[in-house]
Amino acid sequence: MIPMISLSALICVVAVCLLSTYINAFSTTTNTKLMGSTLYSTVEADEVTTTEKKGGINNWFPVKPSDALSESNGYDNLVKSAYLRHILVASNEMADLLLGVYLKGGSIPGNDETYIQTDGDIFNRLANDVSLCSSTRDDGGKIGWVDNPKNKDNQERLDKTNSVVSEIISPDVIEMVFKQRVKGGDCLKLPASDGESWHIIRVDDLHIELNPSTMGAGTGSKNIINKKRNKLKGSGYVPLSPVFNKVDAEVVTTNNGIEDDNEQSKTIYSVPNAQYYKIVTTGCQMNVADSERIMGVLEGELGLQALDSMNEGVVDETLIATTKSTKNKKKTPDILLLNTCTIRDHAEQKVYDALGPYTNLKRQGHPLAIVVAGCVAQQEGDALLRRFPEIDLVLGPQYIPWLGELLVEVGKGSQLCMTEQMIWSEKSGDSTRDKDGDWMVPVKRGHSTRGWVNVIYGCNEHCTYCVVPGVRGVEQSRSMDAILQECISLANVGYKEVTLLGQVSLLYCLTCEHTRVLAIWLYCQGVCLYCLCKPLY
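^ thats the sequence. predicted structure below, dont judge the formating
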C-alpha cells in the first residue's frame, strides 16, 4: 500500500530538500571568498582548494569557468591577455585590510564607518590614496593589458609586450596571475618580487582570441565544424546561404544606427547579397537581452535591416508561398535566427514547428542562413543538425560575440555547432573591434526607456528539477565597472528603468554592497534599478 502524505507535509519535505541543495551549493573553504563579481584568493588558497576537491568536496560539477573548459578549449588556449589594476602596499596586514574594505563595498571591517568615495569604483580610490606605486597611483592603479605567458601565440612577442610593465609588476607575478586562471572581476592578493611588499591585483577583463576557422573544434569539444555539406535528401540542392565578407581594418566605418551610448558599433562585415534578417525570440528576459545583442551585431556590424521587430511570435505564414509568382510578394529574410527556450517542452516544440517553413525554402535552393541560438541550441547541440540538416549554425549563448565571424564561415559553405563551454569577457568576439574600447558587442535596445543589463551568467546550483545549469553554463559575474558603465550610459541617453539580469542574480546583488551604491546613484539620476522585479533602493 502506498502511504498517504498531506500537502503541507509534502511542502515541508520539498522545502528541506531545496534548503539542503542551497547550503551545499554555498559550501566553500575559508580560503576562497566569492562576493559579487570578485573572487579573492591567494596562490596558497588555490592549492588547498584543489586538494580538497580531489578529496571529494565540490567534485560533482565544476564551479569555476576554467574548470568547465574542454581540452581543446583550454584556458591558456583561449586567454591571450588580461587587463590589470593593482595596489602596492608594504605589508600583508595592510593588504588584508584593503581587501576587506574593497570586498565590503567601502565598509571598514570591525567599524561602523564607511570609506568615502568620489566615484563608483572603490578600487580606484584606494589606489589613489594608499598605493606605493608612483607609476600607477594617480591613474587608479592602472597597469593595462599584460599577455598570458602560457598562450602559445604570445611566445614570440612576450618579451616586448610584458617588458613595458616589468617595472610595475614582475614576470613572476604575471605568471602567478594567469596560474589562477582568472576571469574578469577577480581580485588577487599576491606577494611582490621583492619579498616584502604585496600586490592587490584586480582583473578588469580578459582578451580572448579564437581562430574562426577552427573555433575550438577538436578533442573533447562539443564544437563541430563541417567544411563540406552534402546535398539535402529529396531536394538535390546543397544548402545555400548569403556570403559574408570581412572588411579590412583600414575601411571600418562607424555605424551610428545602433544606440547612441555605444561608440564601438562598427560595420566590419560586407554582405553583398543579403539585406534583411528576422529574429524570433521565446523565453525569459535573458533571451530578450541576448537578442538585443544579436540584433546589435546584425545591424551594427553586418549592416542588415530587421524584417520585422523582435517579438515572441510565430513564423510569417506568407513565407510558405514565397516561391509563387505574386506581385505583392513579401520580403523574405536572408538570415533567420531563432533564439530559443527549453525550460518547458512546449517552448522547445515551438522551435521545431517554426523551422518547418524555412527549411522548405532552403530545400528549394533559397540562399538563407538559418541560425538556432539560445537554450535549445545549447541543450541539443549537433542533434539539431542531424534532425534539421538545413540549419547552418547552432549557436550557444556564450558564442554571441563571435556571431559575425561564424557567419563568415557559414558563407563559405560550412555548417557549425558552437556549444562548448566558454569564459565570459567584455572583450570577446571579433578581433577587428578595438580591444581598448568600452563595448565590444553592440546592442540594439528593444525599448527606449527600459533597459536590460546582465550582471551574472550561468548557474552552479544544479537543482534536480532545473535545466538551467546545463544550458547556461558555470556562474560568471560581470565586473562591477562594466555594469556601472553600461547603466550610466543608459541613464545618459534617457533610460528611466534598468533591470539587472541573471539566472541567479541574487548571488551577485545580495552579496555585493557595490550594487547598493549603483542603485543610489541611478536613483539620483532619476533611473529606477530593478533586480528580480524588486527595487534595490
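The chain has three domains: 67-208, 224-418, 450-535.
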